[in-house]
Design a protein that fits this description.
Elements (H helix, E strand, L loop, with lengths): L73 E2 L6 E2 L7 E4 L6 E6 L7 H11 L6 E8 L2 E10 L2 E11 L4 E9 L6 H10 L1 E2 L2
Antiparallel strand pairs: 1-9, 2-3, 3-4, 4-8, 5-6, 6-7, 7-8
Amino acid sequence: PDKQPDKQPDKQPDKQPDKQPDDVIEPAKDPWQTPGKDPWATEGALQRPPPAPTEPASDDDVGTAATAIPAGAHLNPPSGFQKVDNKAGWEVYASKQSHVVMILGALYPGTNDPKELAEKWIADNADLDLHLAGISQVMGHSMATFTGKYNDEYITQYAQIYITPRYRIAYILQAPVAKTTDWQQVSNLIIKGVTVP
């Protein structure tokens, strides 16, 4: 005789007690809310101290004046870049192999408007046939992007504008638009190519 497996009785789901619509559920009372004053609190215990007085505006604000490169500001060129002497007082490094150029210098006096500064840069560098491609925000400051031509090679320039009450400088990165351009290096130099105070 074949033995058949034991059959388990069908399990019935647990029954929920019938709820009537007029059953009202009251929220639990907060045991910490007691009438009257908190006996453990002291006067002003939760008040914050008044903020420290702000320093008055400094008379040293450079406004739109031309400034020198401040102490602590410098380029961070990768290996293979060589320092380039110039009469403008800028800090310049270039790579003969990649044709990438890094420049740190003073901004034009008279304006802090990025578009006006870009127009002055274009006018002063007419031989590069520069065109303003756009102005964006990078890490809290303006960056103007230009296209142009240098030594019969198409280029892109990224000009980051640093305007503070103490100094006004620009970091310019120029790269050729070529198949051989290391765009990862260019991206890194946009972010890490300069140190400012």
